[in-house]
Each structure stands twice: as C-alpha cells, then as structure tokens.
Amino acid sequence: MKESVCIDWSKVIPQKISVRVDGHATSVSLEPPFLEILKDIARKKGQSLAFIITDIDSQRPQQVNLSSSLRVYALQSILTKRL
Questions:
Q1: Which of 29, 32, 51, 78 could crosslink 14 through cysteines, CB 3.0-4.6 Å?
Q2: What is the per-residue pLDDT for 3?
C-alpha cells in the first residue's frame, strides 16, 4: 500500500527576499519552511537574518548557489538537533 504524504503545497512556493550581504543588495528565493528555520536560528542567536545570511555567504564556495547553501544550513541545523 502506498503511503500518503501530507504536504501543505502553499509552502512549496519560494518567496523572494531582499537582503544586504556584505554591503550589497541581493535577493534569495527560499521556500517558507526554510525561511522560518533561518529566522528562528537568527532569533535564538540574537542576530539578524541578514547577519546569518551574510555569514553563510562568506563561507560558501563561489560556485555554490546562496539559496542552496541557506537550505542546506537550515536542514543541517534541524538534523543536528535530532541526533
């Protein structure tokens, strides 16, 4: 029997957010759950979302997409808490 997946499909549509990264205006597209996780991380660290994004941007290899880096960072933070 095929297992049913319960997904709120409205949360699959990426949102474009504008942020200043290292003094430059840029935008990233993220699905709402990833954005919520990143905002929660920023809140718990007492930092702004822009600071978190800038920090991740400064560490990522140039060939790696910023939005992808943010998704993986968010996912890793969730997985680390579960282990």
A1: 29
A2: 79
